[in-house]
Amino acid sequence: MRHSVPELPKGSSSSDEVGSFTENNSFEASEAKLQNLDSCEIEEENCYVDDEDEGYYDDEYEGPDYEFDGSDFNQQIDLNQQLEYKFDDLDLPPGVEASVPLLQKAITDDGPGNFKSMSGKEDEFGKKYRFFKQFDTVEDFPDHHYAKNPVGKTGKGWTKRIQHDWKLLENNLPASIYVRVSENRMDLLRAVMIGPQGTPYHDGLFFFDAQFPASYPARPPVLHYQSGGLELNPNLYASGRVCLSLLGTWRGDDCENWNSAQSTMLQVLISIQALVLNEKPYFNEPGFETDAKYANGQRRSLEYNDTTFQNSCRTMLYSLRRPPQHFEDLVAGHFRERGRAILAACKYYMEGNRVGSVVPGEDDEGKELEIVNAQGPSSSDVVKPEKHEGAGRRTASFKAKMEVLFEELLMEFNVKGAHTRKFCAEKLKKSQRDAASSCSSSPADICGGSIIK
């Protein structure tokens, strides 16, 4: 396996349109009423928050004292009903409502009268993502894999060389790689790379913790892959080990090994993205590369891609629920932007198409229908589906697992504000059909007569 560094052009990730909601202002208690009260407590309804480790818990909020007013109370009821109607069609699972900002009470430091609109919140979240720097310095990394490993005694040459690496990273990172370095611990670095299109890793986020040893650059940096216990590449172990000749963790030719005078951290990161996260990772396994010319080897490669994509989806869930420190805004923004495309890919692969093949967008589907109607189905202008050669054998198990992952991703992307209404509508229609067939009810009897068209 070669580890020369290909030149990757800088690009920009595509974005999906994100819908926004506008909330009404909550009622205000008059200042005169507040002054006339010595004490008055109103019990707020419990707010259930989804905690991944402890389950649901009650978070009691003791609001400010105010005099009860019937008209204000009715106004608040109307507001709550309006918010509920906005989510009638989404069919959110129990407990998810507490994670959706629109369904939470607006409590600010300025009092109950200041209710920040959802569009304002989305603008704020969008700005954090849009202005997330590719390279930046932070104070420290408490959750870094090597945070408890002291680097030892270092010299001026070590400091100067790391600063040189920092400058290379700041000026030459591809658009799909982001890096944070520590001011207090120059030996620590954290990087994330977006999985390349056309591979089973597309749209995924893959995090790496690195440490520069005291002997750097005479010796290469050490790397740990944040796997979450999942193995999705022969070079990336479930334990977090990164197997790469450039890092000295695998044997390679002289030109593939670390060179203290020429090799850099930038080279390591680009090599992982270009050479490890590739289109057919099955053949990364030593000795398997010769199987590529045989039908049996190609079949196993397709099966490996199926499993790899499933683990990539699980990695997405892991990152969403436990975003690494200093990358929270990137994780939320990336999946908010790419959520719809990821869900579309899941659907496309469940239909029997190859993992990593081009997923037709809404524009492609419209173009295909227009051309077929005008010229017939033989047009070469439309992207043809790439069917999995073993689709008949893999459908049952692959589809069953993907359906579960799809539902989990849909819920997480919904919470992050991704544009998933199309998939929520499909889910609701399916539940309506299932309910109608099981109890002979009409669709209008389901969900209070609410039907998505």
TrEMBL record:
Classification via InterPro entries: UBC, UBQ-conjugating_enzyme/RWD
Region feature Disordered, mapped onto this chain: 1-38
Polar residues bias spans: 11-28
Keyword Transcription regulation attributed: no
EC number(s) on file: 2.3.2.23
Keyword Cell membrane: no
GO molecular function, one term: ATP binding
Enzyme class: transferase
Domain UBC core, first and last residues per copy: 157-317
Keyword set, alphabetical order: ATP-binding, Nucleotide-binding, Transferase, Ubl conjugation pathway
Name the UniProt record assigns to this protein: E2 ubiquitin-conjugating enzyme
Originating organism: Triticum aestivum
